[in-house]
């Protein structure tokens, strides 16, 4: 299967020490099966850094990889708690090589913040998140997981 990574640079050899800071699934190398989402990620970084050019690096992933994988099929209760724990950097679960599930885009992120701050309850947050169309994300957490990922090409992204 093809996976994509939107960035300011072409990444032929992923580095597991990035990204820094709070992310949905923790530290590692993030990809998506959605080219549209990867382009959005590249454009977001371009906007933040005031640059005119970004890239989507393209990879082939062997779905039959023999790695320990956690899959969240949708934005359910378990996914919400996992994302909140990672964003607050507590109860981090380091037993998986690969984590797959919905990405908390801007709209979903706002719902998560309202939940974290106690403004909305878990049931309301889940209902709201389940009604949104969320793209997927793949977090490669270990070198073992990365060994099943092969860089194939890149696509240049420019401002529209």
List keywords for this structure.
160 residues; alpha+beta; 7 strands
Structural features, described:
With 160 residues, the chain is α+β, with helices and mostly antiparallel strands. Helices cover 31% and strands 26% of the residues. The chain contains five helices and seven strands; from the N terminus they run ββαββαβααβαβ. The strands form two sheets. The chain has a four-stranded mixed β-sheet. Helix 3 runs antiparallel to helix 4 (122-130).
Number of helices: 5
Please state the CA-atom Rg, rounded to the nearest Å. 16 Å
Quick one: biggest sheet? 4 strands, mixed
Count of individual beta strands: 7
Tell me the distance between the termini. 28 Å
**What integer is the average pLDDT?**
85
List the uncertain runs.
Answer: none
Summarize the structure.
The protein has 160 residues and is α+β, with helices and mostly antiparallel strands.
Task: Summarize the helices and strands and which ones pair or pack.
Blueprint: E1 2-7, E2 29-31, H1 35-49, E3 53-61, E4 69-71, H2 77-87, E5 98-102, H3 106-116, H4 122-130, E6 136-140, H5 143-146, E7 149-158
Parallel strand pairs: 4-5
Antiparallel strand pairs: 1-3, 2-6, 3-7, 5-6
């Amino acid at each position: 299967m093809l996976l994509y990574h939107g960035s300011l640079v072409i990444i032929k050899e992923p580095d597991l020490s990035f990204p820094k800071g709070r992310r949905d699934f923790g530290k590692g190398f993030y990809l998506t099966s959605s080219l549209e989402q990867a382009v959005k990620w590249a454009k977001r970084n371009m906007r933040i850094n005031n640059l005119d050019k970004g890239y989507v690096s393209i990879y082939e992933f062997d779905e039959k990889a023999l790695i320990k994988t956690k899959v969240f099929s949708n934005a359910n209760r378990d996914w919400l708690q996992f994302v909140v724990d990672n964003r607050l950097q507590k109860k981090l679960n380091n037993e998986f090589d690969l984590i797959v599930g919905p990405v908390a885009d801007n709209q979903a992120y706002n719902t998560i913040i309202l939940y974290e701050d106690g403004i909305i309850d878990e049931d309301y947050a889940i209902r709201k998140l389940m009604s949104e169309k969320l793209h997927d994300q793949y977090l490669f957490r270990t070198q073992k997981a990365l060994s099943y990922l092969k860089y194939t090409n890149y696509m240049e992204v420019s401002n529209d």
